[in-house]
């Protein structure tokens, strides 16, 4: 309540200051109406994604147009089925490296076709699931479904648009909702398409529509480790003897979040690009200052030094991170994971 | 049905039990059906109030326990509605983690949606 009170007081002060400064000398002293906080706009953000430059594509920067979803980072395009579009954008990336890239649904909400298409990505450097690739991730999902669901098609490898995907079908007998999951791996991310509908024919049509996708050469259920125009992605490259000089960031603010970071290391061993998957702005600044001083042993393949992409975790380890926040006066953050 | 649609991913029926009690042993170790995971989630532009508390941004809220929701008159963090269906649908907006689950709910026939509402009213 205290934080809410002070925030409101701050907004009032700001609006008052704005009124005073806006009135020119000698003019009508009547104050301008106080500015309202616009509806539907998130002004006060928590941990969010950011990057060291705005030109390098990031996983979350894909776009839905009237005809397709295109991801410059993953280098794939998915053609939208006729009558489908995105109504709501997804949430920001999670601190486990999970992205909602797009969520599609029929434009006519009460029409005969009902269902949804969810395009997701999971950064395999930060996944909490014990899986090393897309096939293992889908297999894990299939073998850990809750009792409310029944597997209709066990995880199998299929070919879609010339690339290998892992496919899993399951159903909720109570609601008669069907799910089909198709996943492949690109740049060490599992890129997953989840189709949901009460009508299996609708799902099959959507799956068939995936044949019109364009995908990078690297895409595959267990390949997908960069290369070509993208840097190679190597898990845990920023460890051990690969790090020649390391400067740890000093995070002074009282935060309880984990900060997953993807970095691109150039052929000379310097950090070229930093993508903060989830961090507060001041954390990003401090970590950027530190990472710019890191030096790596260049990644060499076939006698040639190459750019490489890897993941580094800062802040609180993911399994101990706690987001403190609203409506919790009776539940201090430190206690949250004490209960077993 | 509540589970199958996906509501229980965040409104988890039971995640833990009470502490052992020497005063009232029958209440010790009892399951607490709070219908919350007590996590903080992004709820999107529709529910965003631009108020920050702790490290939560203006669109982040701790999952409200549904224990007793059937007895409540107003719903959501600001009590903006007294209609349970409106409250469910308000969970979907840009930036919300619940949009897909609301889409699943909307995919159900009206009778099944009514079953979900009846269940919530019974809590």
N-to-C span of chain B? 14 Å
CATH structural fold name of the largest domain in chain A: Protein Transport Mog1p, Chain A
Approximate strand percentage of chain B: 5-15%
List the helices and strands of chain A in order: HEEEEEEEHEEEEHEEEEHEEEE
Largest sheet of chain A: 7 strands, antiparallel
Distance between the termini of chain A: 29 Å
What is the largest interface, and how many residues per chain? Answer: A-B, 52 and 43 residues
Oligomeric organization of the protein chains: heterodimer
The side-by-side strand order for the widest beta sheet of chain A comes to 5-6-7-11-10-9-8
Low-pLDDT regions of chain A: 1-26, 327-340
Strand order of the largest sheet of chain B: 1-2
Compute the CA-based radius of gyration of chain A. Answer: 24 Å
Q: Compute the number of strand runs of chain B.
A: 4
Number of helices of chain A: 4
Number of strands of chain A: 19
In terms of DSSP E residues, the strand content of chain A is 25-35%
- Determine the CATH topology of chain B: Cytochrome Bc1 Complex, Chain D, domain 2
Based on CA atoms alone, the radius of gyration of chain B comes out at 16 Å
């Amino acid at each position: 309540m205290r934080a809410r009170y002070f925030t409101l007081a701050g907004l009032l002060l700001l609006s008052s200051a704005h009124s005073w400064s806006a009135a020119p000398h000698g003019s009508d002293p009547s104050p301008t109406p106080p500015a309202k906080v616009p509806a539907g706009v998130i002004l006060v953000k928590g941990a969010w994604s950011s990057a060291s430059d705005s030109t390098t594509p990031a996983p979350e920067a894909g776009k839905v147009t009237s005809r397709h979803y295109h991801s410059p980072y993953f280098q794939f395009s998915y053609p939208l089925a006729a009558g489908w579009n995105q109504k709501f954008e997804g949430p920001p990336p999670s601190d486990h490296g999970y992205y909602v890239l797009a969520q599609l649904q029929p434009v006519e909400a009460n029409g005969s076709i009902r269902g949804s298409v969810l395009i997701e990505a999971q950064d395999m450097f930060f996944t909490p699931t014990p899986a090393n690739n897309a096939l293992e991730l889908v297999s894990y999902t299939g073998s850990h479904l809750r009792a409310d669901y029944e597997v209709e098609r066990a995880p199998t490898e299929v070919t879609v648009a010339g690339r290998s995907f892992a496919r899993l079908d399951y159903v909720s007998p109570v609601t008669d909702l069907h799910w089909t999951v198709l996943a492949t791996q690109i740049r060490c991310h599992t890129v997953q398409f989840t189709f949901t509908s009460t009508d299996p024919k609708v799902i099959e049509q959507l799956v068939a529509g995936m044949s019109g996708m364009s995908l990078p050469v690297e895409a595959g259920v267990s390949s997908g480790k960069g290369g070509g125009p993208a840097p190679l992605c190597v898990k845990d490259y920023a460890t051990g003897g690969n790090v020649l000089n390391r400067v740890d960031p000093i995070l002074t603010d009282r935060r309880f979040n984990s900060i997953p970071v993807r970095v691109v290391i150039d052929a000379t061993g310097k950090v070229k690009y930093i993508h903060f998957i989830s961090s507060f702005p001041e954390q990003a600044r401090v970590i950027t200052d530190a990472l710019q001083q890191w030096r790596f042993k260049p990644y060499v393949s076939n006698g040639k030094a190459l750019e490489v992409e890897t993941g580094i975790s800062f802040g609180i380890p993911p399994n101990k991170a706690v987001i403190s926040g609203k409506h919790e006066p009776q539940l201090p953050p430190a206690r949250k994971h004490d209960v077993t | 049905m509540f589970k199958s649609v996906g509501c229980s991913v965040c409104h988890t029926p039971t995640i833990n039990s009470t502490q052992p009690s020497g005063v009232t042993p029958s209440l010790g170790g009892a399951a607490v059906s709070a219908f919350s995971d007590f996590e903080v989630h992004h709820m999107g532009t529709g529910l965003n109030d631009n108020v920050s508390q702790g490290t939560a941004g203006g669109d982040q809220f701790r999952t409200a326990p549904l224990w007793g929701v059937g007895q409540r008159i107003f719903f959501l963090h600001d009590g903006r509605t007294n209609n349970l269906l409106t409250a469910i649908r308000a969970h979907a907006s840009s930036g919300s983690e619940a949009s897909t689950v609301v889409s699943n709910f909307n995919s159900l026939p009206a009778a099944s949606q009514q079953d979900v509402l009846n269940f919530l009213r019974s809590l």
